[in-house]
Structures are given as C-alpha cells and as structure tokens.
Backbone:
C-alpha cells in the first residue's frame, strides 16, 4: 500500500540502484553504485557526469533494453521497466531517421510500431512537424535535411508518441553550438506544451542548467550521485536569453565545481 | 550549344571516324577482313539475319528467354535463401563452408556436366546461368541484411517493435540497395552464363551462332554477334538503372 502510494507520487523512482557488467564472470565492472533519485510527474531532470559514469546505462535500464538485471528497485510510473513500454519515448544522440522514409513517415514511425491507426498517426505527425518547424518538409527524405532538421524530425517522432515519460540520451550532442541553442528552445516549447516527465542525459553543463528543473551530477566510474541541484531559474525560459543571465552563470560555476569534484574523487 | 550535346556530337564523330577508317583500311587491304571483318560486311550480315532471312530473331529470343528465366529463378531462390539465413544464423553457419566451396568453382566448368544432364535445349544453359546468378545475389542479400544500422534496431526495440516489425520495417528496406546491386550484377552474369553454355553446345542461341560463325571463319558474322551482345548487355544496364532510380528515390 505504502509502495503504491509512493510510486503514485513519482513518475520515475530509482532506489539503491547498483549495476555490474559481466556479473557472471570474475572480472565484473561496477558501473553504477547505489544511485537513488526520483522524478515528480512533468519534471525535467538532467543527468550529467564524465563519460563512463553510467548515465546512458541508467537510461537503457529505464527503457528496458538492458539484459543484465540490476540490484535495487527501479520504477517507471510504478512499473518495472520493460522493453517497448508505451509509457516511454526514447531519443538517441543520432537522429536514427530511416533514410527510406519521408519526414512525415519518420515522424509517424514510433506510432506505427505501436499500432496507432494510419489516419490518426498522420494527423499527429503533421501537427508535430509543424510544431518543430518542419511543416513544409513533410515529403522530403532525410538526405535532403540538415543535421538540425533531422534532429527536429526525431523530436517530432518522440513527442508524437505522447508517452508521459521521455528519455533523451544527448539528443543534441552532435550539433554545432548555434543549432543546439535553437533546438534546445524547440525542446523547451514542446515540453511546456506537452507536459512530459523528462530524463535528459548530457555532458554539456550549460545545456543541463538551461533546460532542467534539477541537475543530478554523477561521478566518474563507478557512477555515484555527487549532487542533486535544483535550478530555480524562472520559466518559461529562453535558452538564448539565459546565456546573458548572471544567475545562469552562477549556477554554472557551482555545478562545474561539483563536476570537477566528481572526476577528482575517482582518480 | 550545351555541353551534353557537344559531348554526344563528339562521340558520334569519333565513332563515324573509327568505322570509316576500319572500312577504308579493309578496302585497301591494310587490315585483313579474314581476321577483323569489315563494317559493311557486318551491316550486311545483320540485315540478312534480322530483315532478309530473319534467322537471328529465333536465336536472340532463346538467349534472352534463357537469361531471363535464369535471372528470375536464381535471384528469387537466392533472396529467399538469404532471408532464411538471416532468420536462422545457425543454418547459415552450417551451410557456409559448402557455399564457399561451390562459389570457388569456375562455374562455366560445370557446363559440360549440365549439358549431359539437361541436354542441348534451354535447360543446360539456364542451369549454368543460375549457378552464377544465385551466389552473387545470395552474398549481396546476406551482406545487405548484416549491414543494417544498429541505431535503427535500438530505436525500434525501445519502441517495442516485434521481430517481424523490425524485419519488415527496418532490416529489409535497409538491405534493398545492396540486394539491388547484387541483382544488377546477377543479370549481367546470367547473360554470361547462357552465352557461355551456348558457345559449348546448344540447339539455339546467340552463343551457338557465334561458335558456328567462328568455326567457318565468318568474321563479319562474329563481329556482328559481338555487337549484338554488347547492345544486349547495355540495355540490361539501362533498364536496371531505370528501375533502381524509381525504387530508390530516397538514396
């Protein structure tokens, strides 16, 4: 009963999560060490840390893509993670657009896999493409799109699923600085309109601060939580305008110190 | 005058000059027509074969028929086996050494055996051509399926795609370009197999005509047949380019 109550309050909950790779062999590697955190519904939380700290591993675990069972308890909307959980939409660093599908067909791909009727998925894909600014490119193939436009299409595909939980693994990691700022604003707009719970993995501190309600800083392998910092910048935010905001830079300095500490602690 | 037009004009001038020089040198006895034929003789041969006597139509028909049957049979079987291997990797592993063995054999060397088994009709040359086409299309099908982008698989699995959804929505379409380049090669090789088998022995077919003309020292005829085979191969390429262009707009 208590369990259910707690789960009902948080969209995502990790308790004492510990993960080892190659646990059957003698040379097992401790990847994630006793990590606990939770997200309230519609909260935007970034996971940040040096590479190899287990950020992506945690996302893959939530997606249900990992085959090795972890120690500890993990819940997404009160349920254990399973592959293909319709409550989750997943977005990768690379856009993964299918090159033989048009922008519209790519935006509808997730819904198609999940068995939505054709007319519904087309209407929704068109609507989402309009929201990410690709309304005029519905019939183009990915080869005709720039990197930024391809990632816009991937955003449309992700939000079109209308899953309450979004897991994003460095979705803008491969973009140039200018395009990145633009897409971060697109994401902010989508997020405030669609009201989703987001776990956002990134190695870009500025990005994490600009987008999130909270930033969780992790240490180098084995991944532990170094700090869980609330970002009290007012919303709605413009990522571009934040670049000139002194509170943004104060938070950056504070978090940078924590991040350095996490790297140093493991050395 | 645009560039493309000037280029094709240039080609036309070169070909006319080349053929003219050939004819001129043959007439003056500098080039021996016994070994090289001469353009006027080649044209006369083709005229007799296709317009006056019309005897070449039948052979052309048999060659194209055999190559077409071999191409379709060999390709369909190869794509089917390739997909089967993709679904059953252990079967692929078990069959691989035998396939490598068969594929290492110069297939044209099987022609005498096939002639014995299937006779002088259309069967033996189809068998030779299939033995060439099948392996080419099979290896490209297997390569195409293995070459699927792992990001696409991860994304689809995270979305909850079933194995059959992954196969039809991701693996198969991503393999199409490579399978297609195998098919293009397979068609050229099925023509090669058919003509090769006909050269050895056949009732009808351009290869058989070619062997006969060579043995009777009819060089105009030999050259005419070679020209015909070039045109045949060329039209195959043109048709395949057209289909590829229509099929793979996204590339």
Residues:
């Amino acid at each position: 009963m208590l369990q259910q109550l707690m789960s009902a309050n948080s969209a995502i909950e990790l308790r004492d999560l510990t993960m080892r790779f190659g646990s059957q062999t003698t040379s097992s590697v401790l990847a994630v060490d006793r990590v606990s955190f939770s997200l309230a519904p519609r909260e935007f939380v970034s996971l940040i840390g040096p590479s190899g700290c287990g950020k992506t591993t945690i996302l893959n675990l939530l997606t249900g893509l990992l085959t090795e069972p972890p120690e500890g308890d993990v819940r997404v909307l009160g349920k254990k993670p399973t592959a293909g959980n319709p409550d989750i939409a997943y977005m990768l660093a690379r856009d993964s657009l299918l090159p033989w599908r048009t922008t519209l067909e790519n935006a509808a791909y997730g819904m198609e896999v999940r068995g939505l009727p054709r007319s519904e998925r087309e209407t929704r894909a068109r609507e989402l493409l309009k929201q990410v600014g690709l309304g005029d490119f519905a019939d183009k193939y990915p080869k005709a799109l720039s990197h930024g436009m391809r990632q816009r299409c991937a955003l449309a595909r992700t939000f079109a699923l209308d899953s309450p939980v979004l897991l994003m693994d460095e979705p803008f990691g491969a973009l140039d600085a200018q395009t990145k700022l633009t897409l971060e604003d697109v994401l902010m707009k989508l997020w405030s309109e669609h009201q989703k719970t987001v776990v956002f993995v990134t190695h870009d501190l500025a990005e994490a601060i600009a987008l999130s309600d909270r930033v969780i800083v992790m240490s180098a392998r084995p991944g532990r939580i170094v700090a869980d910092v609330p970002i009290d910048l007012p919303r709605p935010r413009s990522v571009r305008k934040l670049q000139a905001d002194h509170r943004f830079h104060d938070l950056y300095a504070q978090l940078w110190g924590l991040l350095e500490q996490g790297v140093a602690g493991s050395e | 005058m645009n560039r493309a037009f000037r280029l094709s004009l240039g080609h036309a001038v070169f070909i006319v000059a080349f053929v003219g020089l050939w004819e001129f040198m043959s007439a003056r006895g500098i080039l021996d027509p016994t070994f090289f034929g001469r353009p006027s003789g080649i044209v006369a041969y083709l005229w007799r074969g296709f317009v006056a006597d019309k005897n070449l139509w039948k052979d052309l028909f048999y060659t194209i028929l055999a190559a077409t049957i071999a191409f379709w049979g060999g390709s369909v079987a190869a794509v089917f086996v390739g997909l089967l291997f993709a679904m059953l990797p252990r079967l692929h592993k078990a069959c691989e050494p035998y396939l490598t063995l068969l594929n290492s054999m110069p297939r044209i060397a099987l022609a005498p055996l096939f002639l014995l088994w299937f006779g002088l009709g259309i069967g033996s040359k189809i068998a030779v051509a299939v033995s060439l086409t099948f392996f080419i299309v099979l290896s490209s099908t297997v390569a195409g399926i293995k070459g699927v982008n792992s990001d696409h698989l991860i994304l689809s699995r995270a979305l909850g795609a079933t194995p059959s959804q992954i196969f039809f929505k991701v693996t198969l379409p991503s393999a199409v370009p490579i399978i297609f380049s195998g098919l293009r090669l397979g068609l050229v090789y099925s023509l090669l197999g058919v003509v090769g088998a006909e050269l050895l022995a056949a009732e009808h077919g351009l290869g058989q005509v070619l062997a006969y003309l060579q043995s009777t020292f009819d060089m105009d005829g030999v050259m005419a047949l070679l020209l015909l085979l070039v045109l045949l191969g060329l039209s195959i390429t043109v048709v395949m380019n057209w289909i590829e262009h229509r099929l793979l707009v996204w590339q």
The CA atoms of residues 137 and 227 of chain A lie 42 Å apart. The radius of gyration of chain A is 19 Å.
